Amino acid sequence: SLPEGSKMAKGGGSAGVLVLILVTLLINIQVEGRSYDVGWGFVSYKKLSATKFKRGDSLVFNYPRSVHDVVQVGGLKDYTNCVVSKGARKNKSGHDKITLR
């Protein structure tokens, strides 16, 4: 038979494990990013340009795939100057989801 204090410590350990599991779940929920639908026009661009994106957020591009595609560029300067690096990822599905890293 264990001393009374040992039984209490054992029960407290179960509560500690439960708290650890809950904290882990909450952290995982917070880490998961938001999803933003990106339209195909100026109004959509203007609305999203004021958004502060975070790591883990996703941009969802919906467009007619027979006419357009989505290419990932190196930054604002490349985007502004329409510079596409050799080997840049090109998305052509018409419904592309890109997760920010």
From TrEMBL:
Biological source species: Taxus chinensis (Chinese yew)
InterPro entries: Cupredoxin, Phytocyanin_dom
Superkingdom of source: Eukaryota
Coiled-coil region list: none
Name recorded for this polypeptide: Phytocyanin domain-containing protein
GO-annotated molecular function: electron transfer activity
Pfam families hit by this protein: Cu_bind_like (PF02298)
Record domain Phytocyanin: where: 34-101
